[in-house]
């Protein structure tokens, strides 16, 4: 039996502006994981997961990405007809901008290569994961898979730049789930229209890019005050672009009133999650509890 994991991701800074060639920073969230267990069985490939239980050949059409990934990975490994029991367990909520599909793919590829005792380079891992991500998302940026498979923050640009980002900050991040599924495609269209037909959309995008660079410096220099201020300003920009949500705004207000140094939505918006920065663990726990009391469906605390 083999067990391998991957982690969730959140965008710390740069959502939406990254579409317009500005940088983004994503963080792997080690406390929220997806795990894959593989066991040898007779008689085909069986899947156990929260979305499907049964033979791989009978899997639902909305899970075609995972089916294709498993089949193509086994072909690469020279084991196309092996009987396997694959159990997928994920703590990552779907459609919250936390990279759930990429995390599942990363854990699957890692587990399959380990089960057959084959070496797996990072480049091969990302190439294999891209098989399912293209089916699920059409034209994925690569940010989710890069972060789900990383131990360090990622600096990302649409031109293909993906690199590890130095971090030297002593703080905590609280993630709060609004319980509302994010609507990334709709949010992207709203921003597009704001830029094309509004007067300030382009300026807001440029400012989000500037804030991303400031965030990188704050992470490097342990400047938590500047990091919190950048998060607050970024959220104001995202709200002006039209991609926030009343449930998100409520959680932002609660977090800031509870001692957070800064808070913002994370991901595509129109729902999804917020992130709140705190200087210490006790404040993070208080923010987390107040978010739950205020309507968040789940919270997580991550030490930066």
From TrEMBL:
GO terms for molecular function: ATP binding; mevalonate kinase activity. One of its GO terms (biological process) is isopentenyl diphosphate biosynthetic process, mevalonate pathway. InterPro entries: GHMP_kinase_C_dom, GHMP_kinase_C_sf, GHMP_kinase_N_dom, Mev_gal_kin, Ribosomal_Su5_D2-typ_SF, Ribsml_uS5_D2-typ_fold_subgr. Pathway: Isoprenoid biosynthesis; isopentenyl diphosphate biosynthesis via mevalonate pathway; isopentenyl diphosphate from (R)-mevalonate: step 1/3. The keyword Glycoprotein does not apply. Coiled coil: none annotated. Residues 216-291 form the GHMP kinase C-terminal domain. Residues 70-147 form the GHMP kinase N-terminal domain. Keywords: ATP-binding, Cytoplasm, Kinase, Lipid biosynthesis, Lipid metabolism, Magnesium, Nucleotide-binding, Transferase. Pfam families: GHMP_kinases_C (PF08544), GHMP_kinases_N (PF00288). This is Mevalonate kinase. The lineage of its organism: Bacteria, Bacillati, Bacillota, Bacilli, Lactobacillales.
């Amino acid at each position: 039996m083999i067990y391998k994991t991957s982690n969730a991701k959140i965008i710390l800074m740069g959502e939406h502006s990254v579409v317009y060639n500005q940088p983004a920073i994503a963080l792997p969230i080690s406390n929220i994981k997806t795990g894959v267990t593989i066991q040898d069985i007779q008689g085909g490939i069986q899947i156990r997961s929260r979305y499907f239980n049964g033979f791989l050949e009978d899997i639902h059409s909305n899970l075609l990405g995972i089916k294709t990934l498993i089949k193509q990975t086994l072909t690469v490994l020279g084991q196309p007809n092996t009987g396997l029991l694959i159990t997928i367990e994920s703590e990552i909520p779907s459609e919250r901008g936390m990279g759930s599909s990429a995390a599942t793919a990363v854990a699957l590829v890692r587990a399959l290569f380990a089960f057959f005792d084959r070496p797996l380079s990072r480049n091969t891992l990302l190439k294999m994961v891209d098989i399912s991500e293209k089916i699920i998302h059409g034209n994925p940026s690569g940010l989710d898979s890069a972060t789900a498979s990383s131990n360090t923050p990622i600096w990302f640009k649409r031109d293909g730049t993906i690199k590890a980002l130095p971090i030297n900050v002593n703080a905590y991040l609280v993630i709060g789930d609004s319980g509302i599924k994010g609507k990334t495609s709709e949010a992207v269209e709203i921003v597009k229209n704001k830029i094309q037909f509004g007067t300030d959309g382009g300026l807001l995008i440029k400012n989000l890019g500037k804030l991303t660079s400031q965030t990188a410096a704050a992470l490097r220099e342990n400047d938590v005050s500047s990091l919190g201020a950048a998060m607050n300003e970024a959220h104001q920009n995202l709200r002006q672009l039209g991609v926030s949500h009343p449930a998100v705004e409520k959680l932002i207000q609660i977090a800031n009133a509870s001692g957070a140094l800064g808070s913002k939505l994370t991901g595509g918006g129109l729902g999804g999650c917020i992130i709140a920065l705190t200087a210490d663990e006790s404040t993070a726990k208080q923010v987390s509890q107040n978010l739950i009391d205020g309507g968040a469906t789940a919270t997580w605390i991550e030490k930066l």
